[in-house]
Input
Amino acid sequence: MPQASDAAPTIDPAEAEHFGRMAADWWDPKGSSATLHQLNPVRLRYLRDRVDQHWSLDEHDLRPLAGRRAADVGCGAGLLAEPLARLGAAVTAVDAAEENIAVARAHALGQGLEIDYRVGGVERLDGAYDLVTSLEVVEHVADVPAFVAGLAGAVKADGLLILSTPNRTAWSRLMMITIGEGLGRIPKGTHDWDKFLTPDELAARLNEAGLEPVDVTGIGWTPTRGFGLTDDVSLNYLVTARKR
Output
């Protein structure tokens, strides 16, 4: 089985090591991944809406992805992969950190979920998937164009790609690094602001890879409501793309 040290071209070994150190308490909503736990319901609401619209699905269907293949790239310990499986998808999930995959496999087993977890990068995917997700990952890879091209290559002709990533703005620097990492709400060293992508930059990479962005929605934060979907993309944003 590949190790993080056998890094594929898109994997930054230092990033894999950083996130691997967080594996043990990944599922603790008050642990080092607390922010991801707070983000997850917002991301899932967006994902469900985009999936329903794309395939004209019943919004009340509890298993709208039944009969479809999904891939989650940079899956961590499975915070998104498990909901995708519960929505009915046959899920393949990959992560560069072996520690994360070990925790993900154990947690899925305890939940009675069958998920094909693999150590490695986007290069570990095989075949084409109806849905490919990669949330809060593109800002951590070693080669953004190659990574996005790998994601695009894994999307079926009528499939969807959904990404999320921080925007490169003064607001994101303040909230995610100065405050988030400075006050210990996010593990120190998680983010490199210079690697954040603006929506225009990410759209350019998607277009180069043969994908058409069809939606960009912001993720905002307020002290009273926490995270939520918004038209303001200055902090963080989600992108949906499809094959041209």
